[in-house]
Design goal:
The protein is mostly helical and 143 residues long. It has 2 domains: 30 residues, no CATH class; 82 residues, DNA polymerase, domain 1 (Orthogonal Bundle). Helices cover 48% and strands 6% of the residues. The chain has 7 helices and 2 strands; from the N terminus they run αββαααααα. The protein has a two-stranded antiparallel ribbon. β1 and β2 form a beta hairpin. α3 packs antiparallel against α4 and α4 packs across α7. The longest helix is centred in the middle third of the chain and has 14 residues. The protein is globular, with a radius of gyration of 15 Å.
């Protein structure tokens, strides 16, 4: 179990992406682990409408922090989010709470996703989206 003292957690809020970023001295600590240990509290969005949720997710998919993840998630959001119900949108929202590099490695298969993401339909759809577009040059979709 990690504590605040042991990981020397430092966070900042990125105005560009609206996503919390973390640095730590622990060997490998994901955003999910920080949430599980209640080291951080997510923003309460319980009263958010479906339309607002969908719009926020499209925006957050475009403005991540690293270009590779921006390109993958923005195209994925344009193609898939309109088909998702509220439950899947919330699952995608939870995925966006993960670090950019983790999402990139998990969806490309470079690293194994944590156990709680292994049966995720969203992550499975994201992997399918990437594999079906092999050799395609990606551009940021229009807003």
């Amino acid at each position: 179990m990690f504590s605040i003292k042991s990981i020397q957690l430092c966070r900042y809020f990125s105005r560009k992406s609206g996503v919390l970023r973390y640095w730590h001295s622990a060997p490998y600590l994901t955003h999910s682990k920080l949430l599980e240990d209640k080291l951080i509290r997510p923003v309460d969005r319980s009263k958010e409408t479906e339309k607002l949720l969908r719009s926020r997710l499209v925006y957050q998919s475009r403005k991540r922090g690293i270009l590779e993840t921006d390109l993958i998630l923005s195209g994925f959001a344009k193609e898939y989010l309109s088909k998702y119900n509220v439950e899947l949108l919330k699952e995608y929202d939870n995925l966006l709470n993960e670090a950019d590099w983790d999402i990139l490695y998990w969806c490309t298969g470079e690293r194994q996703a944590p156990e709680h993401w292994l049966n995720s339909r969203v992550l499975r759809d994201l992997k399918e989206y990437l594999s079906s577009k092999n050799g395609v040059v990606r551009f940021m979709p229009e807003l």
